[in-house]
Amino acid sequence: MNVDLIFKIAAIGILVSVLHQVLVRAGREDQAMLTTLTGLIVVLSIVIKEVSNLFNSVKTMFNL
């Protein structure tokens, strides 16, 4: 696991939270919710890819 992954997820979180606050203050709550949902999906896809790589590494390590 790389530290860059943690920084990437943190940057996405900060960006999404700022966009959410800006959109809520502009009165666009629906777009703010969609922005938050999109950020969550992006982060989950990154995490799922990394978990898949972990399982593949364990598989090859134990010759399964």
SSE blueprint and pairings:
Layout: H1 3-25, H2 29-61
Structural class: mainly alpha
In sequence order, what are the helices and strands, one letter per element? HH
Shape: elongated
Which percent range fits the helix content?
A: over 70%
Output the number of helix runs: 2
| Rg over alpha carbons | 16 Å
- List the uncertain runs: none
The total beta strand count reads 0
In whole angstroms, how far apart are the ends? Answer: 22 Å
Number of domains in the coordinates? 1
Average pLDDT works out at 94
Strand content: under 5%
How is this structure best summarized?
The chain is an all-alpha fold. The protein has helices spanning 3-25, 29-61. Helix 1 (3-25) packs antiparallel against helix 2 (29-61).
Can you offer a commentary on this structure?
It is a single chain. This protein is mainly alpha-helical. The chain is 88% helix and 0% strand. The chain has helices spanning 3-25, 29-61. Helix 1 (3-25) runs antiparallel to helix 2 (29-61). It is elongated, with a radius of gyration of 16 Å. The mean pLDDT is 94.
Features:
64 residues; mainly alpha; 2 helices; 88% helix
